[in-house]
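Problem: given the chain below (383 residues), write out its structure.
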Amino acid sequence: MSTSLFDSLDLGPLSLPHRVAMAPLTRNRAEAGNVPGALNATYYRQRASAALLITEATQVAPRGQGYPRTPGIHSEAQVDGWAAVTDAVHEAGGRIVLQLWHVGRISHSAYHDGARPVAPSPLRPEGEVLTPDLEMVPFETPRALDTDAVPAVVEQYRQGAANARRAGFDGVEIHAANGYLIDQFLRSGTNERTDRYGGSLENRLRFLREVTAVVTDEWGADRVGVRFSPLSPFNDMHDAAPADTFRAAAATASDFDLAYMHLVEPSAPKPPVAGDGEAAEVFGGMREAYDGALVANGNYDEDTATDALERGYADLIAFGRAFLANPDLPRRLREGRPLNVPDASTFYNGDATGYTDYPTWDELQNGASAETLDSLQELAGHW
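Solution.
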């Protein structure tokens, strides 16, 4: 029997009404002190019809920040701010998990009172970073974490997980993707350590295993997911043997019996195991190594999402920009309605514009301009 986007799914103790999840999306709209505010609560409440809301990446410690106005989960004010968000989502009937984040070397001393960012190894990434003053400057060479300093960072993840529970979340997702700290420990291109956290693949996996252990200790494995991006070069990332590295990472998720594994994929083909070459080898190996629910993310549309589900590759599809611009995305997909087109100029560091002002389908019918409707019809099917 084939699976559709609109079949229900039990994800650990969570009963999901369909398979359309919202991917984590950094929007840079936290208030002073990196505290989620009323605007953030409105944004997530509007999208509570998602099968599962995965929040924007949320730093577990002050040293984990690398972008302006990203929320944290390490202060009481932040816990209170997130509690208002989870209350709003739950009142609207939704389910929401917090993504636990530490950027590692993808930061700048301007965020840390002049102290250099930390990383597994002192390797400066290519590219530039946005400072708190909204200036683009080159990345700095990070400071390698001493061996005896690593457990304190692991403890920050544990405390972040505990704080997420106090804030009323339904679970947490460990951010091990996109070139941030856990990913930096995993990949050979960013980990040149010679201690127990580097060298062999087993050692490079150690930080991930230690973080997963403390997070699952706080929550139970059935309310914890993990996100990987095995072939993404984002943030100057590479690995000498990604098929081996990420098959082992997926096996780690399976060892802990996590609720789900969330994969950031290349744009095509969909699903990646349907093609040939490196993507098929890497993602196929991860699917074989992990026997739990798989969340697929990477420019899916309704047809490719359905194909991934029917093949048995994925169990849940995470939509990013489509959900950003369409707070009622599950309904629009179910009914075949045209989609609002996201405005890239408002993705980051803004206000309500391009954040909480995208109309639902009902709102469009009750007062949209002819120009808006013409634009929707012209761009229908564009993701």
